[in-house]
């Protein structure tokens, strides 16, 4: 028997299949099945909005396990909510796919979507399917922050300590699909007002840190010996050093944030009490506007502003 494809099932039946088992979440007045979703915003909170897309051949490949495609599409959006200290609440998902796509593959993608959405109590309130020449998932997320309590890129001050969660580099070996967005950590950083600025690491440490210091009108010194390097980056034998991978590889999806020097010890104690996740001080904010410098173990200094992976540049 030939496997069922999108073409043979049809769009209406497919949407029914994908949403049939979904209950409505908190605050959802109209969920999937009507013309548009309706949710009730929470009192005293500001709305946070984000959209993102992942495309076959760029963010995943035909051989990628479909559950992880769904996971990644949602996790990327949740990671951006984490970076601003927001609580994600609702998602809309648009699927673009060739008519020849096996229905099994689509169902598995949605299993991945629903699993991570459930893990963060986020409800999928709607979506759309469209025929396209290439498989792609477009995710739109809505969430909220306490009124006036958003964590931005622009608040870093000279002297602040730069912190990073987890370990960096070599995500292409698998972590870029399976990473866990640091939603709890981001929300806690904003709520407890530990951080002065934050960003999630999507484009690589040197690029994302460059964004943060540009927004804040400051500079940064990073100590090479303090950058936590992922085991995957240590194992790569491609001519680049592990620290280069940690600085330049994209899609770590860890949080990078700044904490005032006077608060750093109490911050570290509170963090360790709260989370089972490494956090490392990797350097400090300087007055050298727009300049990120790497201080090597031999005290040599390199300018590493904006030299990591960027879309469309190669
Ligand atoms: Mg981001």
Describe what you observe in this structure.
With 314 residues, this protein is an alpha+beta fold. The protein has two domains: 8-146, PurM-like, N-terminal domain (60s Ribosomal Protein L30, Chain: A); 153-303, PurM-like C-terminal domain (Phosphoribosyl-aminoimidazole Synthetase, Chain A, domain 2, Alpha-Beta Complex), CATH 3.90.650.10. The protein is built from ten helices and 13 strands. It has helices spanning 6-9, 11-19, 66-83, 103-119, 175-178, 183-191, 205-216, 231-235, 242-248, 264-274; strands at 28-30, 38-39, 45-55, 87-97, 123-131, 136-146, 161-165, 197-200, 219-223, 255-259, 279-286, 292-295, 301-303. A seven-stranded mixed sheet has the order 8-10-7-11-9-12-13. The chain has a four-stranded mixed sheet with strand order 3-6-4-5. Strand 12 and strand 13 (301-303) form a beta hairpin. Helix 3 (66-83) packs parallel to helix 4 and helix 3 packs parallel to helix 6. The longest helix has 18 residues, at 66-83. It is globular, with a radius of gyration of 21 Å. Mean pLDDT is 92; it is low at 308-314. The structure holds magnesium ion (MG).
